[in-house]
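Lecture notes, unit on protein representations.

Consider one protein chain, 268 amino acids long.
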Amino acid sequence: MSKFAFFLVTLLIGLFYVLHFDEVLADRFTAINNLKKEYILQTDTLTSTISSFFDQSSKIKELTQENQELFKFKNLHTSSTHELSNIQANIQTLNIQEESLEIVKVLSYVNFNDFTKVWLDIEKQNDNIQGLVDGEYSAGIVVRKANKAQALLNGHEKSNYSVYIGQNKAPGIIHKNKHKDLLSIKYIPIWININIGDEVITSGMDNIFFEGLKVGRVVKINKMQDQQEAFIKPYSQVLQKKYFYIYKKEPTKTPLKKDEEPQLKKKP
């Protein structure tokens, strides 16, 4: 065989081998690529599953907390519903109070030597003591004299009503003070702490005023063996006023229950 022929045969064998090897490599790379794609797909699926699991776990925790809150609100609602039912069941036995404010005008002094006792421009048909109001401040009390309304202003010796002092709500009774520009609060329990600067409000415990009407501020405190006395600077300048409001709190007619309705007697 000539060298040329041998070279040609060798070249053909080499080409055949090379071409066949490429196919094998191509097949192998295709398998590797497919394996890689499958791995990526499975990894994404697993990641998505894990993420979904944690999302669901977080959601379950959140819903559990919400459920606990709803359970508490349900109990509160149930309690409130029962309380409301009890109130509604007994509402007809309550002594319902009707409140109102009526504007009144000062007519004149009752006596020229006492500026804290004045006549008002309305009639008064009952003996209930009522509160006299100056805007957001207490100003005194109103009593009946000869079927007329008479105001006993702050500073009058008989202008007495119950109050609370400071944050501790120390109870006491308003009285006249020897100093014309001050008021006294007597019968304050010795064991309740009060301070200079404390604000004084009406307590409403005497049914003369409602609770919370401002009276004045404490400027002096006298401590005794079994009680305290406070001097206060009142807010209302009662001697300078021509108009006030009367606070009225009167019971309304209480409706009878069905089983308490009066029965008409039948004629025989």
